[in-house]
Design goal:
The chain has 2 domains: 10-66, Arc Repressor Mutant, subunit A; 75-212, Orthogonal Bundle (Tetracycline Repressor, domain 2). Helix content is 72%, strand content 0%. The protein is built from 10 helices and no strands. It has helices at 9-31, 38-45, 49-55, 59-74, 84-90, 102-118, 120-135, 137-164, 174-191, 198-212. Helix 6 packs antiparallel against helix 10 (198-212) and helix 7 (120-135) packs across helix 8. This is TetR/AcrR family transcriptional regulator. Residues 75-95 are annotated as: Disordered.
C-alpha cells in the first residue's frame, strides 16, 4: 500500500486566509464596519475564532489586510517576472502608463477607477471602510498610508514625467494637480449625486489638463 501523503498545512492556511478575507469583506459590505465582528467573520469563513486571533490582533487588522488584498487583485497582481517596465507602460500596480499622450494615459486609469468604484464587490466594503475611517482616526490614517498614498504616488510620478517632457506647466504642483483628477470622482461616488461613468472620467481629464497646460 502506498504511503498516505501528509496534508499540506500551507495550502490549508492559504484557503483559510482567503475564506477569512472573503467573509470579512462580505460582512462589512452587508452590515457595516461596526456591526461586523470577529465571531461573525469566523462563522462565515468556517474557521475558529482563535484562528483569526492567531493571525491578526483586531477586526480592523483583518479588514485592512482583506481590503488591501482585494485592491491588489483588482490592480492586476504584479508585472511578469523581470519586466516591471512593461507593467508601467500598460498600467497596473507598478505605475500609470506612459505612452507619451498624457490625456490618453490618465483617461485609461480614471476609467479603470470608475469601473472599480462601480463594482458591487468593491463598492460596499470601500464605502464602509471610508465612512469608518472618518470617525476612527487610526483606521483612517492606516487606510491612507497603506492604500491611498501608494496609489497617489503613481499619479505624482506620471505628472512629473509629463512636466519633464514639457506636457505640463513647469510651475504646477503634481500633488495638487492629481487632486483635480481624483477629487471629482470621489465626490460624485460618495454623494451618489450623478452616475459615475467613463464619459465623466474623460471630461475630468480634459478640464484638468486644460488648466494645467503650458502657458506661453
Amino acid at each position: 500500500m502506498a504511503p498516505r501523503k501528509a496534508p499540506d498545512a500551507g495550502r490549508r492556511s492559504d484557503r483559510s486566509r482567503r475564506a477569512i478575507y472573503d467573509a470579512a469583506l462580505a460582512l462589512v459590505g452587508e452590515n457595516g464596519y461596526r456591526r461586523t465582528t470577529i465571531e461573525g467573520i469566523a462563522a462565515r469563513a468556517g474557521v475558529g475564532k482563535q484562528t483569526i486571533y492567531r493571525w491578526w490582533p483586531s477586526k480592523a487588522a483583518v479588514l485592512m489586510e482583506a481590503f488591501l488584498d482585494m485592491a491588489a487583485r483588482a490592480a492586476g497582481q504584479t508585472a511578469p517576472e523581470g519586466d516591471e517596465d512593461a507593467d508601467s507602460r500598460n498600467g497596473g500596480e507598478y505605475g500609470i502608463p506612459d505612452t507619451g499622450d498624457l490625456a490618453a494615459d490618465l483617461k485609461l486609469v480614471l476609467r479603470a477607477t470608475v469601473d472599480e468604484l462601480n463594482d458591487p464587490l468593491m463598492e460596499a466594503p470601500t464605502r464602509a471602510l471610508t465612512a469608518e475611517g472618518i470617525v476612527d482616526a487610526a483606521l483612517g490614517a492606516e487606510f491612507v498610508e497603506k492604500l491611498l498614498d501608494p496609489q497617489l504616488a503613481l499619479y505624482v510620478t506620471r505628472l512629473r514625467a509629463a512636466q519633464e517632457a514639457g506636457h505640463l506647466r513647469a510651475d504646477a504642483d503634481p500633488r495638487t494637480a492629481l487632486e483635480l483628477l481624483i477629487a471629482p470622482l470621489t465626490h460624485r461616488w460618495l454623494l451618489r449625486t450623478l452616475p459615475l461613468t467613463h464619459a465623466y472620467a474623460d471630461t475630468i481629464v480634459d478640464y484638468a489638463l486644460g488648466g494645467l497646460a503650458p502657458r506661453p
